[in-house]
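ugh finaly. both done.
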Amino acid sequence: MFKTNQPKETMTKKEIQELSKYLVEKTKGQFHYEEDYWKEFFSNSEVEKLEKKINVCMEDQNYNYFCKQLFNSFDNLYK
């Protein structure tokens, strides 16, 4: 079986938590999924991968948890 670099269509809660923390830390608290300026903090190839993961997080079953984890990450950024 070959492994692909394409993100899965689902993500675990731990993966969502890690992604939200990474996005907030890497952008120094400037991440917002409705704005494009966060992309300046990443390479073009990484933006493509992150956008796919973010789209999975924006799905109905993940959306509330993703938002909650983003808020937690923002709160913990400068502790």
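ok and the 2nd:
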Amino acid sequence: MLPGNGLPGCGRTSSTYFQELTQDIQAYVRSSMPVWRERYPGVEQLKLAVMGCVVNGPGESKHANIGISLPGTFEDPVAPVYVDGRLMTTLRGGDIVNEFKKILDEYVEARYGRSAQEEQLIEVR
């Protein structure tokens, strides 16, 4: 799933606030991916959903490894975050993007980092 996916006709995806939040997350992922590829084998398979709909966004986010449903213009700054299909937390306030970046970094480390690889080797044995 690509950052900024939205349902056709969803007004939230055309909101300036949503677009700014999405662009911030997308830029972060683009700038981080080269480093992640070197450190975290398999990270290219990460499915990230950045949604603009609090109605359908959670369902779409559940199908991604990690997903967030961002608020639109004039909506309360509330954004549910899903990790591996389950609601992990709901971010609130003006620092949603930075808090999501931290969650994303922690997820990438936990899922694709050395300790995750070692656990997979142990399971195979």
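summary for the 2nd one i guess: Residues 1-9 have pLDDT under 50 and may be disordered.
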